Every structure is written in structure tokens, then in C-alpha cells.
Amino acid sequence: MIHLKTEEEIAIMAEGGAILRGVTDELAGKAVEGMRLKELDALAKKLMEEAGGVPAFLGYKPAWAKKAYMASICASVNDVVVHGVPNAYKLKQGDVVKLDLGLKYKGFYTDTAITVAIGTVSDEAKRLMAVTEDALTLAIDECQAGNAVGDIGFAINAYVRKHGMRVVQGLTGHGIGQRLHEDPVVYNEGKPGMGARLEPGMVIAIEPMVTTGSGLVKELADESFATKEGALAAHFEHTVAITENGPIILTK
Ligand code: MG
């Protein structure tokens, strides 16, 4: 069931989203060679709490997970796509790290992700990151009332394929609001006009996950997902509200 939000609720989510953006940008600046993932995690928790929010992922147990998540952010390096657990790993030159952050603020969740290059990365990594971020922008352009969820997925997948890359299979975006994961499922591929209709008051987290590999993933021991063949992956995500006047990016 899709929970539509009132203008007041969207305004609260925009407040939370602005806080989350600030935390994410600060983290991105700290993601440099020699930084440990768990240090980034601790910093994110501190910044979120100082701002009056709660790290959304800490203690969260989604339906698909065997156990509750025990960190505040996800930090996924190179071939790890999402749900990487921030451990003692030290970032090094050439790494591509995906930082995925969720915030609960005044009863509402927002969710965002970025991919950060550590020092000088390969041209392939640069291209992958640019294609993934551009796919998210194109997807947000589709967030017009009357369009369908399938239009979003189609826009992402068509763009990614045009650049010789693949969206990661089996991982999706989602509705978001008083719960971190709500309906509808927001696929990174789809057919134009198919699926749930977008209407004013819907808020969705759109999150293209793209790889230079086949798109197949495997689950690792920490319940993170990595590309099957070890290929690089990138991930960008925004929380977006559908309104009469077009999309509003709440995590901008
Ligand atoms: Mg998400």
C-alpha cells in the first residue's frame, strides 16, 4: 500500500533530507586515503544525533536480512554494491566507496547515497560514477504525476545500457516515509507506462546501482552484496517527492 504524504509531512522530510545531505557531504570530504570505514560510521552517527536525528539503519532489520544491522551507515568498497558494513578497512588510492545514509527525523525517514573516488581512480571508475549519477538525474526527471514507476526504471536502464554498462539485478529503490522501506518498489529497469502511477504526495527513494560487469550479484558473509565477477559498482540515491509542480529532491 502506498502512503501519500501531506505537504506538511513533505516539509518535515525536506528538513530531515537537508540534514542528511549535510552529513553525507561532510562524510564525503572525510573519505580520503587512510580513513577507516568505521571512523566514517562513527562520525555519521555523531553528526546525525547532534542534528536531532537518529541513524535509520542502526538496529534496522529489513525483511530480507537474517539479523539487525549494527552500524549507522553502509560503506561499500569497489565490487561491493550495497549494505557494506563499515569495518576497520582503511581506504586506499583508487578505491571507489559507496556511502549510503538514512536518517530518521521527526518521525520520517530520508535516504541518500553517493559514490566517492579515493584519490586518483581509473577512467573506467570515473565513467561508471558519471553514468550512475546521470542515470539518477534522468530518473528524477521522470518523477511527474501521471507517469509510472516503469518510466523511472526504463530511463535508468536505457541510459546505463547505452553506455555499455548494466544495472545491478535484484536490488531496487523504494517508497519512504514513516517507514524506511514502503511501497512501491522502484526498479532500476522497467517498461514505460507500467507499474504504479506516480501521484502528488508520493515520496520515493530512487537508487540506481550500476556495474561494468554482468549485473549479477552474490551475497557476502556480512550480508552485503558484491558483483559476482568482482566488477566495479557505483550507487547514487536521492529521496524524491512527487508534487503537482514536479519532483522535489528532498536530499539535495
Ligand atoms: Mg534506499
Layout of helices and strands:
Layout: H1 7-30, H2 37-50, E1 54-55, E2 73-77, E3 80-82, E4 96-105, E5 108-117, H3 123-141, H4 149-162, E6 166-167, E7 173-175, E8 182-186, E9 203-206, E10 209-211, E11 217-219, E12 225-227, E13 233-235, E14 238-243, E15 246-249
Antiparallel strand pairs: 1-4, 2-4, 3-12, 4-5, 6-10, 7-8, 7-9, 9-14, 10-13, 11-12, 14-15
Helix pairs in contact: 1-2, 3-4
The protein binds magnesium ion (MG).
Offer a concise description of the structure.
By secondary structure, this protein is α+β, with helices and mostly antiparallel strands. The protein has a single domain (about 5-250), classed as Creatinase/methionine aminopeptidase superfamily (Creatine Amidinohydrolase, Alpha-Beta Complex). The protein is about 30% helix and about 25% strand.
From the structure above, extract its key features.
252 residues; alpha+beta; Creatine Amidinohydrolase; five-stranded antiparallel beta sheet; four-stranded antiparallel beta sheet; 4 helices; 28% helix; binds magnesium ion
